[in-house]
Amino acid sequence: MPESTASPFLRAAGLTKRFGGFHALRDVDIEVRERAIHAVIGPNGAGKTTLFNLLSGVMAPDSGEIAFLDRPLGRLRPHRRAALGIARTFQNIRLFGHMTVLENVMLGEHWRIYPSLWRSFVKASLHRPLGEAREETEMRRRALETLEFVGLADRRHVMATDLPYGEQRLLELGRALAMEPRLLLLDEPAAGMNIRETEDLDALICKVRDRGVTVVLVEHDMNLVMGISDRITVLNFGDKIAEGSPSEVQLNPAVIEAYLGEEGTL
Amino acid sequence: MLGQQLINGLMLGASYSLVAIGYTLIFGVLRLLHFAHGEVFMVGAFIGLHVVLWFAFANIYVAIAGAMVVTALLGWIVARFAVQPVDKGYPLAPLISTIGVTIVLQNLAINIFGGEQVAFPETIEQILYRIGPLTISSVQIFILAVALLSMAALWLFIDRTRMGRAIRATSESHETAALLGVDVNRVVVVTFVVASALAGIAGVLDGVKNSAITPHMGLEVAVKALVVMLLGGLGNVPGAMVAGILLGMVEILTASYLGTSVRDFFTFVILILLLLYRPTGLFGTRTIESG
User: Fold this and answer.
1) Rounded to two decimals, what is the model's pTM?
2) Nearest Cα to B35, choosing from B229, B290, B207?
3) Fewest CB atoms within 10 A around its CB: which of A16, A56, B158, B192?
4) Residues A165, A105, A210: CA angle, nearest 5 degrees
5) Residue ranges per structural domain of chain B
6) Range 179-238 of A in CB contact (< 8 A) with B
7) A114, B162: Cβ pair inside 8 Å?
8) What is the pLDDT of residues B197-210, one digit of tens each?
9) Which CATH code fits B2-288?
């Protein structure tokens, strides 16, 4: 993979997060390169979802720094990080159940250019209510494109939570893509999917990467992870125990031991 | 006779709906009972009155617009200074803060406008229309039209705009909405602004209907709208619209057949029965949705 810039796309250094006396993450460093598919794996309780929570700004780390595109994120709130181009999906699906599939995707769209409160009022009330209507039409069109991309276009008028499980996962992915993110955090996107659906997802994630989106992936399905990842970070009980290409990680004794302790095979 | 009463009930109910929608919007987004919402309604009525009194050119539309602007501003102030700074770690704290706002607004109104009942000038020419056995006045038509139009506009806003969608999303989950780029604090402020403007409209309509307003008028409406919110289901906007009209009709019917003295008694019997047997309201508790 060619290095386009000297500094990495996403860099987390010394990330530590405690819950009471329990270390969810301990002094973890991660560097993600642009346009990579970077997997984070590890047994249950390894700290993967905590890492996502810190990256997306839902939680603040006890110590450590995260820099995105060379910009330290500090305590930047989640919606500001979303505006910078960080999107995520959730391990336990979090769709808006009282909205249609299409509305869920529209919600993901261009909040980054939403003007200030005052300006938006002036705009909506005096300036051009018609402009707002045009924008709405435009948003609808783009949302439909996104739905076509994830293969849910014909389901657009269904209420989100009436979709079968696998399609709900795809919708979450679509909603995140509608934000036009530069960094996409996928938290167990294949959970609950059958083999066929997982294969489709595999192809879809690669298509997302080919659009220029950097993907960080937490996943238990090792076939999926090993097949599409450029780089893998392994966490165990909050510590980073290995990092490298799929083949390097598979041969790493520390990784094998961590997984043997839990599931037996890698 | 019954038809006539239903028309009267519809009118009474429509203003309950307008106030209750505000309650239920704010409840949907913040899980907060905005105690001072009835006082916002009262402020709306007084602003409407004084716009009419101060400006020679002002007709009722200007009065409504003026009341909307001032109550919207009031909503912004309440959200920014009485609700958002309060520590969310204590669920009762914002509620108590809005109780404080109630006291402040009521005393301000008494000091500025006096504690007495004030006459609301006639701004619409009274014309009576007879349709078969029914009589409907121009004032009634006006009130009903404005209330229904406001509700329709709100529905369009909630259902068809980006901010409306953000309000619905926020009412389902603050965290998920924020992760999608929604500025939740801004959504909260907008919700207060919109809810308060609706209460302002309702206040002016009430002045037009009763031809008199007092600084104490907020309490009764606040309590009635609270019943409406519970009847319609917490956070349920279409529920509040329907339930408001329903309660208005029930009140008018009890007043005309059983006497005005039992009207409020009946309202609160409904409330108690509701809380006992159907606490989620007639149409179910839910997060804000367009229907």
Assistant:
1) 0.90
2) B229
3) A16
4) 85
5) 2-288
6) 179
7) yes
8) 999 999 999 999 99
9) 1.10.3470
